[in-house]
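Module 6 notes. Inverse folding takes a fixed backbone as the condition and produces residue identities as the prediction. Think of it as a translation problem where the source language is geometry and the target language is the twenty amino acids. Below is one complete input and output pair. Work through it position by position during the lab.
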């Protein structure tokens, strides 16, 4: 049981390139199969976190790789949608900057002496759920007004979450200097 959450996280990392391969494969219903992979990755995220907490097997590897796997899957899905012209390039660029900064800040905080981790807040979790819905809708009903509402709500919640995370990062850095 000790290594199961990390094994599930690694499985999710391996699902990232498979998602892109399936999405662009050209087989009938390829995007629906890719969506199934995307949603399965989301379920494994919930499962590995639950198992790690339930059995108290939270590890350094999990703390680092779990959010990385989540961010890579989301960015890959958004990149595929951007490449297909479903979402605008500028929105992908915004997400790439936000997620890139979050990854670098998380790595910095973790590898300092205190091994700080700024936990995901409610806005971050809401953004994750909204992006799961938005990606699903972009694949199933691209261009539908409801799809765009969910997408813009996801982007706005991600931006708000980024502001909150930045405040946590700055607070942590201030405490570090004391």
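Target side of the pair, the amino acids:
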């Amino acid at each position: 049981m000790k290594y199961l959450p990390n094994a599930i996280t690694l499985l999710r990392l391996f699902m990232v390139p498979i998602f892109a391969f399936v999405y662009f494969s050209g087989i009938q219903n390829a995007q629906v199969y890719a969506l199934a992979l995307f949603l399965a990755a989301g379920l494994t995220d919930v499962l590995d976190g639950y198992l790690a907490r339930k059995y108290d097997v939270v590890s350094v590897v999990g703390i680092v790789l779990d959010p990385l796997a989540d961010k890579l899957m989301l960015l890959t899905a958004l990149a595929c949608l951007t490449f297909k012209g479903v979402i605008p390039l500028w929105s992908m660029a915004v997400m790439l900057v936000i997620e890139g900064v979050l990854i670098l800040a998380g790595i910095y905080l973790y590898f300092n002496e205190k091994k700080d981790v700024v936990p995901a807040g409610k806005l971050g979790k809401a953004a994750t759920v909204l992006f799961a819905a938005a990606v699903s809708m972009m694949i199933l009903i691209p261009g539908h007004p409801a799809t765009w509402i969910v997408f813009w709500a996801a982007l706005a919640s991600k931006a708000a979450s980024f502001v909150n995370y930045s405040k946590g990062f700055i607070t942590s850095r201030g405490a570090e200097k004391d």
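Reference fact for the lab report: The chain has one domain: 4-177.
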